[in-house]
Records
---
Amino acid sequence: MSAIISISNLTKIYKSGLQALKPVSLDIKKGEIFALLGPNGAGKTTMISIVCGLVTPSGGTVTVDGHDILKDYRITRSKIGLVPQELTTASFETVLATVTFSRGLFGKPANPAHIEKVLRDLSLWDKRHSKITTLSGGMKRRVLIAKALAHEPEILFLDEPTAGVDVELRRDMWAMVRTLRAQGVTIILTTHYIDEAEEMADRIGVITKGELIVVEEKTALMQKLGKKELSLQLQEPMTVVPAGLSDWNVALKSDGHELLYTFDAHTEETGIPALLKRMSELGIGFKDLKTSQSSLEDIFVSLVHSDSQPGAQP
């Protein structure tokens, strides 16, 4: 799959001296859903804003479908739809007028049928004659999405698109994203809802302090960094882990009522049979046991936390 966005050694240093982006290099494949995760202030919005032509980079290059974003601004911008975080739109215009006008800004000929389809897909058709100032926050968010799709972009950036919106909008929007992806549209999203990235994304990038610390296919990332835990509910609580269990990565939880064993689920030998045998030899009884797989959120937290430690490696 060819790259539709190529980012090479991209940096951004603001006049204040803040380095919002350290050298970032990334290829985004045509037709994929790429999730960019990171804490507040990590550089997500800065990177998106540069690619969309809203912020000037300090260094590096970005091409969109082979066109340089600085030299061929009009061409690259016409290929991109952007749903920003902020609810910024012309409040006194009607929904239909503002979405139709957005299409015209990109030099696209009028296409009422396309505008109607976008509005219907986002449950906005019944509100098409309403002034935006009268809409709820969730409906205004839908209008931003409709504006971004009005000119039929090949690439759609969603910057925290479902932050603070209702469950119905989240459901409608992700159904729409799946449809767009099936049509070949490339989707790049940032989100605080890591479950969305876990469900939707093909690949995931994690950015922190302006540095892209990992880019990986979602399934491969969870295989490489995901851990499994075996939880044993003890018959009798313990105050310390017995020395006889020192060969296993175990810890006491729940005031000594639970023994937690963390292991790599992808190795041939998990160590569970030997652990249970050793516990039996030591006379440690348990009432129940269960296993759980670490989630993408666990992996994200561990990556960001480890990167914040002195001497941490990406």
---
Amino acid sequence: MKGVDRFLIPRPRGELRYRCILCEGAFPLDRFLYTCPLCGGLLRIEDLRFEELKEVSPEGWREVFDRRRFLGVEVLKGIFLFHELILPTVPLEDVIYLGEGHTPMVRANEELSQWVGVPFLLKYDGLNPSLSFKDRGMASAVSFINYMIRHKGLEEVLGICASTGDTSAAAALYLSYLPKERVRSVVLLPEGRVTPAQLSQPLGSGATVIEVPGVFDDCMKIVEELAERYEVCLLNSKNPLRIQGQKSYSYEVAQQLGWDTRSLVVVVPIGNAGNVTAIMEGFLDLYRLGLIEELPTVLGVQSEHANPLVLWRRTGQYRPVKVRPSVAQAAMIGNPVSFPKVAQLVEQHYGDRFVVVEVSESEIMEGMLMANRHGHVVCTQGGEAVAGLRKALAEGLLRPEGRFVVKSTAHHLKFAGFQQMYFEDAFPPEYGIRPKDELKNRPVKLPASAQEIARFLGLKPKG
């Protein structure tokens, strides 16, 4: 299409502001803010010149985003391929790209599709650099930190987050790319509730790791207090800069589906609700620009052990819950920070297109094991999403017509310990998991003999 060539290499544009979702207060994007200074409400990033993007037709933007994938420009290979929709005021030279984004969507085979109830696609966000979707948000937040250091004279930054594992790995990785004399990384983890693989990641990236008794909610309270009273940069999804990067998931799904979102259902584990917020906001951006014809249905999935949004949709009232142990560790959040944003998006835009379902801990493990047994690389949160789609179809919450994309948020190997516990029937009682024999798998010890192994396998001699 003629006339779009000048947009292929994006230049800084737009006018970004923090906007409170409660009082509508607006504040310049020249500092780190997490809640409204006037009323304490959550903030979102608003481009005051967003409407100017409509000067390019929807067909033009589709061509720009599609052609950028083949330009060979390093910083446009990641989430900033959608520069105009993420942080358009940040110059490309300040963008941090570590290989994040554009994760593949893999079609479930016939056996797994029959088990779930419909054909569907799995999007592998566990193939991001730190092995989880959190890299999307860290790429935008840490690129903004880099911009503030390079252009605003920021001399010292202490990045901090609370985490169940994946956030800490992503934050530590991306912060470690910035100059050590200016940037420090600190993460708070709930003691004993993070897998060894996840704990090794921030340690390996050089972060200061602080273990705190309790659960994620306890860690989150501490970092919120630190962000309120001290000069630190909060890197949890309460930071709206994180949400900007995580919106890229929606842009990629739409692009990978040829920009056709009609009859689309996107399945997402809820956790701290930042992810589902970003996904809904991302599709809303595309809808406002005319790049997609309709908003998808979003199916949010929660464990029975941490289900505040399920109870909210069921009763109409939101109350935090006390969590119980969950194999989907990112689900162990009884008071999701981003719930107010979810509620507003549902009220103003999504309505009945936002559906929530809860699954048991056994169903989560079965979802993960069944997906991986049929050719996938799915974490426990991904298993939660697979199980949620199966449950929603069985309960009639979703119609089987249409297309379905399921998000696997992290790499399976981060949670291999839970698989081993399942195979060995070693879960503590509080998980409430009863392994099924047909899903167990254990090594078989045999002599170092081809004949013995052939006999065990039931092989027939040639000829």
